[in-house]
Amino acid sequence: MTRLPPPSVSLHYHPFNAEPPRSALIASYITPVDFFYKRNHGPIPVVDDIERLHSLILVLLPCLHFDIVHCRNNLSVYSTNMAEQILCFDSRMLPKYNVTATLQCAGNRRTAMSKVKTVKGVGWDVSAIGNGVWGGAKLADVLELVGISKLTSSTKSGGKHVEFVSIDKCKEENGGPYKASIPLSRATNPDADVLVAYEMNGEPLNRDHGYPLRVVVPGVIGARSVKWLDCINIIAEESQGFFMQKDYKMFSPSVNWDNIDWSTSRPQMDFPVQSAICSLEDVTAIKPGKVKVSGYAASGGGRGIDRVDVSVDGGKTWVEASRYQKPGVHYISDDMNGDKWAWVLFDVTVDVPRSTEIVVKAVDSAANVQPENVQEIWNLRGILNTSWHRVQVRMLERIMPRSLMALYTVLKLSIKQVPAQHLSSIWLCRDSEASFTGLESDCAFKFTCYNFTGCTVFGGFFEGSQIKPDLTIYVSNDLARLLAGSTNERSFFS
Ligand SMILES: Nc1nc2c(c(=O)[nH]1)N[C@H]1C(S)=C(S)[C@@H](COP(=O)(O)O)O[C@H]1N2
Ligand SMILES: [Mo]
């Protein structure tokens, strides 16, 4: 008898990469830190030399007019021995901003892209995304401290990009630190809300998310929001780091590892319009009737979500889902009170009479829409899979009383606690991929067994009035063995 593990953050590879289960992801508008995806290219650094790391040094290229001494003087406010004070430096020295922004890894939904043709990279489901409240100073204010005024796209000496350098050690950088850059025009634009953040959801950043300081670039792929920030450089060209030049770039489906020329594509910044269903797994067994379809939609560049369409016939006809950021408050994309950098949650209740494909697509405020198929946006690194998100639902079948008794004859061998009279009905799904999700709420006993009469038996006992709702037993391998040895297969399926 195997008890399934409770929903938890799933680990991928070393270095530490994790994403929450779909249902946990959309349980709240603000993603709790524990359920926020973690994406790391090297080991998470242990920041013991707190003073060094907090001494955020802006290294201005010698070609610029600011000299290092001038720079250090201006920034001496960052250096202090006390961690507490350092974490508050912005609130004392620079205004503190709280920006609600969705961070999305460019590799979100990569696993689905890999199914078309293998791609390189961490295999993410749909949860390499999260919505946080980031607290910190605006990068535009920090840069102003060293004499770079707001809304500057080029300094006199030719600085056009702002590079963020971390302290972690990445094998892609030959053991050097992770780094990335954004255009100076974005960095110095106060409305772009780029933060040097020290807080996440009202708490100091934790180690996983970049303690003590990280950059947050709203509306842009997560790769540019550098964690464990060590220094900032003003440079003439984009950062030459691996993750800017040899990764996180979009290519056509025809580009492969033999003909790729990295220089032909620019480092990806804004992410395109995206949405995903999170209330259903890839294949979910459900009873015929109403199904709540919910999930998230988000677009890059500060574009809002104008519509979320859901189809229960694989994309032939569509219904519009309701959208919200604050629970119960209808979302309007250009609303001044809305969070312009944040995702929108959606839900709609649909009638599902038969096994089918449920699809979602979102439309952003520039009328951009997600591509229908993954094939046409396939790229060798497997980034930005924003194709319509599709899930399968498999109808459960109610089995006949005679079969029920036959099944019970076998089942009671392993589940002695269930008196026969409580088994008023049994539902089955003959699909080896189907998940339990649709059964969780009203199913007192459930089981899966594989390789039984060539198909998977997947079902649950419902409506046993005297069965306590929290009494849940999962049966898999043991029962499979019992059933496989049974001679009652025919009557079971009759
Ligand atoms: N220093 C550093 N910063 C980094 C990374 C990294 O590996 N090292 N990963 C980037 C990528 S690809 C993403 S998607 C986000 C993930 O942020 P999170 O782990 O806080 O969710 O951090 C970015 N910043
Ligand atoms: Mo990422």
From TrEMBL:
Residue ranges of every copy of the Oxidoreductase molybdopterin-binding domain listed in the record: 93-243
Transmembrane segments: none
Molecular function (Gene Ontology), one example: molybdenum ion binding
Class of this enzyme: oxidoreductase
InterPro entries: Ig_E-set, MoCF_OxRdtse_dimer, Mopterin_OxRdtase_euk, OxRdtase_Mopterin-bd_dom, OxRdtase_Mopterin-bd_sf
Pathway: Sulfur metabolism; Energy metabolism; sulfur metabolism
A single Gene Ontology CC term: mitochondrion
Alphabetical UniProt keywords: Metal-binding, Molybdenum, Oxidoreductase
Span of domain Moybdenum cofactor oxidoreductase dimerisation: 267-394
Pfam families attached to this UniProt entry: Mo-co_dimer (PF03404), Oxidored_molyb (PF00174)
Superkingdom: Eukaryota
EC number: 1.8.3.1
GO biological process: sulfur compound metabolic process
Needed cofactors: Mo-molybdopterin
PANTHER family, per the entry: SULFITE OXIDASE, MITOCHONDRIAL, SULFITE REDUCTASE
Designated name of the protein: Sulfite oxidase
Annotated organism of origin: Salix dunnii
